[in-house]
């Protein structure tokens, strides 16, 4: 008989432990199943069939069915497991053993462990050379991710993201549940195949695919709470009264405020406005459904995910519904792949400067919840500073809603014309539509005198709507040839690619509405002039790549890519070469026969060199632009007419910014691959950097209130380097009692240095530490030759003037100084010679927000049905500017100021508050606000339990896992601000904590069910 029948059994490893996830296939077909959590399987097969059992890390084993109805298998550990792992290297795949570039793969089991909406956060500390910092804690906000340091001084710092072969303009914000693998191309040689946008590295994301076999259904969900665990210490009412009524009148010669005479009940309040605007124990939820299955010809995978996260600040939140359908079809020599992804995101953004306006409020003022509101817009505010208090109160009534609808469609068709020769065409379309509704309601504020305060009020409601429509179309043609003869293996790839990008921005608005509930543009009484902007550019590229291997010992790869960009005029095209080589020492006979060879599974040396380009400037930067917005009076009657004018200069000779990348690496696996070690030393040199050169006012492009908008002309100038070392070490094993453990660690040290800035020693200031005090506040960071980008240059504080002798001496520098003022060191710049005054030349290098080094340690344990995962991250050596502390000082609210210098407290080191934001004692350009930003964070602790198989069989469920996770549960740091993870924009505001949306810790409960 040769009829099909059911064959079942169990698969174990060579220690007797059951192996889940083993692929069991009928040889020669695509019929197969996967073993369950107990290593058990069941499949339909004939007598003459042979079953193939395969699992990563173990040798594949075949067994003929014959007359057996039960086949139990023991798989032996494969000492060459790392050699067989396949990773994505861009426009193709390679076995790890053959890779000559610095490429790291992160799988879904790692990504799924963190309860985050952004995939970048899930890999913090897990990949050497990849820095991940939260830009802010705002729900849905993408983290800053940098590969091997600062990529450029202008434009984007993030890597290129490619999802299923489709390039994205920025972070694709894909749901982590949909990701199968992330392959990170770190060195230039690996990334060079993507040419123009690869100078910051490349992240290749592969979404989950369907597999042949029975349909499987996966459900997962988690829910939890978030809270803020730190903050800026402020004075309470009693302390504030002492500071304002005892110390301040003496220091400022003022009188006691009279508003307490009118409203003595205010003395009964002790309001914490910062707490009032927080939403502690905010809820977050996530639901995911995955359906997968198929036949030998067609497989499908559908995934839908919903993420809902309330903000830890009031009036903020985020939700995202993301769905993706993947399909693969194979028939003979023809292969097809199609993917459709649809995502809709909704954000509610907290009011502008919410934290700062909360910090600045006096504690004796009545709470926001106690305000008496008549109708929907009339409120009485019985406080001393109606304008300042009213600004916070009325901002909380604003509506700031943002919606993003995005889609991507991609189709890949591949056909093998001759043995080893394939042609592939890839077509894709990305669409990204953004809309924002910003409504400021009418809000009429009456003060202590019972009169309307027009300055504090919003007399007429305002509505602004913003729209952005973007579309990217990509077409790629690829020829690939694979051939093996003898010990030689050769792969040749040729690619032709073309992309066009179109974006249109539109803003409309109106003022004056019948009621605050009438929030439609058409109901406005007065309309704002609409504005629009169109952005279009194209990219075209040709790639040739050659990969060669001899006996899997000597490896060589070379590529050359020529790209053209419409952003440039006279220098549109540039050529970017790369070359890399590898030597598998462990494959040499002399090594195999040595003492080391008996314990070393693999040992490989790698080296690479490549050039890459960067074209990230705004379109039309190299072209002359004629712009509207300047009107003229014409004719005898001087009629106002529309005008067009050239408001800025262009540079038609602008060209590509070039990066030269060098890398030397080693890969080692020992003791049957239980121990793995990877190390890389690299150097990336930036040349012809794209920089904005400020033209003088005499050039005629300076505009009031837009000093830096029209006068820069972009040039190629300057040099920058990133040099560093990356180390990854891992060890995994299983004890006799069945305990499995996997310990991995990473270490990264990157040294960023600006070599040249077109003759400028220090320039490009940035990093104002507040958002609400305007442009009058000092800048804190600069680009400076000989230092890392975004370095702090600050005055050195020399303590508080406490004695008459100190005052007499310091008055030689500042004649207006008084006791209690802060003193600064007169160093007059680099020479260190005093010139008798304190000015910008006395700023000195004071570190930066870039860490000296970073490290990660991850521990994963499994015992029977229990699992434990601990992820930790260390950032060492960064400096942080505590902007929240600085702001609280400017308002006279910080707890430190309870002990400020005064005649009654003459030994205090706290400068006196002078009721002036411009006081020399409280200036942002001082290192008084700089703090050590080193921190050790337990990033993730997860404890899970899988229900016994015997119990699940009764209800016909494949597996159920329950878990609890603490995300950011513990942070050890000396930093006194909200959180030491201050990413900012990744460069000039990195390390500048200006009341950023705080990073919260989360505690969640989750479940994963498989049918």
What is the mean pLDDT? 87
Enumerate the spans where pLDDT stays under 50 for 5 or more consecutive residues.
none
Largest sheet: 22 strands, antiparallel, barrel
Please state the structural category.
mainly beta
How many helix segments? 12
- Gross morphology is globular
The level of helicity is under 10%
Radius of gyration: 32 Å
Strand segment count: 55
N-end to C-end Cα span: 33 Å
Q: What is the strand content?
A: over 45%
Q: What does the model show?
A:
The chain has 12 helices and 55 strands. It has 1011 residues and is mainly beta. The two termini are 33 Å apart.
Please give a quick description of this structure.
The chain has 1011 residues and is mainly β.
Highlighted features:
1011 residues, mainly beta, 22-stranded antiparallel β-barrel, 5-stranded mixed beta sheet, 8% helix
List the helices and strands and how they pair.
Blueprint: E1 5-13, E2 23-26, E3 32-34, E4 40-45, E5 50-55, E6 58-64, E7 73-75, H1 81-84, E8 86-88, E9 93-95, E10 103-107, H2 108-111, E11 130-133, E12 144-147, E13 160-163, E14 166-168, E15 179-185, H3 188-191, E16 202-207, E17 213-227, H4 237-252, H5 259-262, H6 273-276, E18 282-294, E19 298-310, E20 317-331, E21 334-348, H7 354-359, E22 372-374, E23 378-380, H8 386-395, E24 399-418, E25 421-440, E26 444-446, E27 462-485, E28 488-511, E29 526-527, E30 531-550, E31 554-565, E32 573-584, H9 589-592, E33 600-614, E34 632-634, E35 639-641, E36 657-670, E37 675-687, E38 690-694, E39 712-716, E40 719-734, E41 740-756, E42 762-766, E43 781-784, E44 791-794, E45 797-800, H10 804-810, E46 822-824, E47 844-848, E48 853-863, E49 866-876, E50 879-882, H11 883-890, E51 930-932, E52 935-946, H12 949-955, E53 959-973, E54 992-993, E55 1001-1010
Parallel strand pairs: 1-7, 13-16, 23-26, 50-54
Antiparallel strand pairs: 1-4, 2-3, 2-5, 5-6, 8-9, 10-15, 11-12, 13-14, 15-16, 17-18, 17-55, 18-19, 19-20, 20-21, 21-24, 22-23, 24-25, 25-27, 27-28, 28-29, 28-30, 30-31, 31-32, 32-33, 33-36, 34-35, 36-37, 37-40, 38-39, 40-41, 41-48, 42-43, 43-44, 44-47, 45-46, 48-49, 49-52, 50-51, 52-53, 53-55
């Amino acid at each position: 008989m040769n009829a099909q029948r059911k064959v079942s059994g169990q698969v174990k490893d060579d220690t007797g432990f059951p192996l889940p996830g083993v692929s069991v296939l009928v040889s020669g077909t695509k019929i197969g199943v996967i073993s369950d959590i107990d290593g058990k399987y069941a499949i339909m097969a004939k007598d003459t069939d042979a079953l193939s059992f395969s699992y990563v890390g173990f040798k594949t084993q075949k067994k003929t069915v014959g007359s057996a109805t039960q086949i139990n298998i023991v798989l032996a550990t494969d000492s060459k497991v790392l050699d067989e792992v396949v990773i994505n290297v861009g426009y193709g795949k390679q076995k790890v053993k053959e890779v000559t570039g610095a490429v790291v793969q992160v799988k879904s089991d790692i990504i799924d462990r963190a309860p985050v909406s952004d995939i970048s956060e899930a890999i913090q500390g897990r990949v050497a050379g990849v820095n991940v910092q939260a830009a802010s804690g705002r729900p849905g906000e993408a983290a800053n991710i940098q590969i091997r340091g600062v990529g450029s001084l202008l434009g984007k710092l993030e890597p290129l993201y490619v999802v299923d072969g489709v390039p994205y303009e920025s972070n694709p914000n894909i749901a982590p549940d949909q990701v199968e693998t992330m392959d990170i191309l770190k060195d230039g040689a690996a990334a060079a195949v993507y040419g123009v946008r690869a100078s910051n590295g490349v992240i290749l994301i592969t979404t989950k695919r369907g597999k042949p076999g029975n349909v499987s259904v996966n459900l997962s969900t988690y829910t939890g709470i978030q809270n803020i665990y730190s903050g800026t210490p402020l004075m309470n009412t009693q302390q504030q009264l002492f500071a304002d009524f005892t110390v301040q009148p003496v220091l400022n010669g003022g009188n006691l405020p009279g508003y307490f005479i009118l409203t003595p009940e205010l003395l009964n309040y002790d309001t914490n406005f910062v707490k009032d605007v927080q939403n502690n124990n905010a809820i977050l939820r996530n639901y995911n459904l995955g359906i997968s299955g198929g036949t030998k010809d067609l497989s499908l995978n559908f995934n839908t995910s919903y993420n809902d996260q309330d903000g830890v600040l009031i009036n903020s939140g985020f939700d995202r519904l993301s769905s993706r359908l993947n399909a693969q079809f194979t028939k003979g020599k023809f292969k097809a792949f199609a993917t459709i992804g649809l995502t809709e995101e909704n954000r509610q953004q907290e009011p502008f400067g919410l934290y700062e306006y909360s910090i600045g409020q006096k504690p004796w003022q009545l709470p926001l919840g106690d305000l008496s509101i008549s109708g929907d817009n009339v409120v009485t505010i019985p406080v001393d500073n109606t304008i300042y208090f009213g600004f916070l109160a009325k901002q909380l009534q604003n509506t700031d809603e943002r919606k993003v609808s995005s889609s991507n469609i991609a189709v890949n068709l591949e056909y093998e014309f001759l043995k080893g020769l394939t042609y592939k065409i890839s077509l894709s379309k990305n669409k990204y539509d953004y809309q924002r509704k910003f409504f400021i309601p009418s809000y009429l504020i009456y003060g202590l005198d019972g009169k309307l305060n027009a300055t504090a009020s919003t007399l007429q409601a305002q509505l602004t709507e913003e729209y952005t429509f973007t579309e990217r179309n990509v077409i790629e043609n690829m020829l690939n040839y694979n051939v093996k003869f003898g010990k030689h293996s050769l792969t040749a790839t040729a690619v032709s690619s073309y992309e066009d990008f179109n974006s249109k921005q539109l803003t409309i608005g109106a003022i004056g509405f019948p009621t605050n509930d009438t929030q439609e543009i058409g109901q406005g009484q007065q309309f704002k002039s609409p504005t629009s902007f169109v952005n279009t550019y194209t990219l075209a590229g040709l790639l040739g790549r050659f990969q060669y291997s001899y006996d899997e010992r000597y490896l060589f790869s070379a590529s050359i890519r020529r790209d053209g960009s419409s952003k440039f005029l006279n220098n549109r095209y540039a050529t970017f070469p790369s070359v890399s080589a590898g030597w598998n020492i462990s494959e040499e006979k002399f090594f195999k026969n040595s003492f080391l060879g008996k314990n070393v599974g693999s040992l490989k040396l790698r080296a690479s060199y490549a050039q890459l380009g960067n074209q990230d400037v705004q379109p039309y930067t190299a072209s002359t632009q004629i712009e509207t917005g300047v009107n003229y009076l014409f004719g005898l009657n001087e009629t106002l007419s529309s005008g067009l004018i050239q408001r800025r200069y262009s540079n038609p000779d602008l060209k590509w910014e070039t990066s030269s990348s060098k890398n030397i690496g080693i890969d080692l696996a020992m003791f049957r691959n239980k121990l793995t070690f990877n190390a890389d030393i690299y150097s990336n040199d930036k040349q012809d950097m794209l920089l904005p050169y400020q033209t003088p006012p005499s050039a005629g492009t300076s505009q009031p209130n837009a000093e830096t908008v029209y006068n820069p002309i972009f040039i190629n100038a300057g040099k920058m380097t990133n040099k560093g070392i990356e180390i990854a070490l891992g060890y995994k094993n299983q004890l006799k009692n069945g305990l499995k453990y996997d310990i991995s660690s990473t270490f990264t040290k990157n040294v960023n240095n600006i070599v040249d800035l077109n003759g400028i020693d220090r320039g490009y200031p940035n990093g104002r530490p507040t958002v609400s005090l305007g442009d009058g506040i000092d800048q804190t960071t600069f680009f400076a030759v000989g230092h890392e980008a975004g370095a702090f240059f600050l005055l050195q504080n020399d303590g508080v003037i406490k004695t008459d002798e100190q005052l007499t001496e310091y008055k030689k520098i500042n004649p207006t100084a008084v006791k209690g003022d802060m003193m600064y060191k007169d160093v007059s710049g680099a020479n260190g010679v005093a010139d008798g005054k304190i000015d910008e030349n006395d700023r000195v290098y004071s570190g930066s927000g870039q860490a000296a080094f970073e490290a990660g340690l991850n521990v994963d344990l499994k015992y029977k049905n229990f699992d434990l995962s601990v992820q930790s991250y260390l950032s060492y050596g960064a400096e942080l500017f505590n902007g929240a502390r600085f702001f609280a000082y400017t308002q006279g609210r910080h707890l430190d100021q309870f002990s400020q210098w005064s005649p009654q407290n003459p030994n205090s080191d706290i400068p006196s508050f002078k009721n002036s934001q411009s006081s020399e004692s409280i200036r942002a350009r001082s290192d008084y606000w700089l703090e050590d930003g080193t921190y050790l964070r337990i990033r993730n602790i997860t404890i899970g339990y899988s229900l016994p198989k015997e119990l699940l069989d009764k209800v016909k469920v494949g597996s159920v896992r329950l878990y609890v996770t603490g995300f950011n549960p513990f942070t050890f740091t000396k930093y006194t601000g909200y959180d030491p993870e201050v990413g900012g924009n990744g460069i000039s505001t990195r390390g500048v904590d200006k009341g950023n949306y705080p990073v919260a810790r989360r505690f969640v409960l989750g479940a994963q069910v498989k049918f």
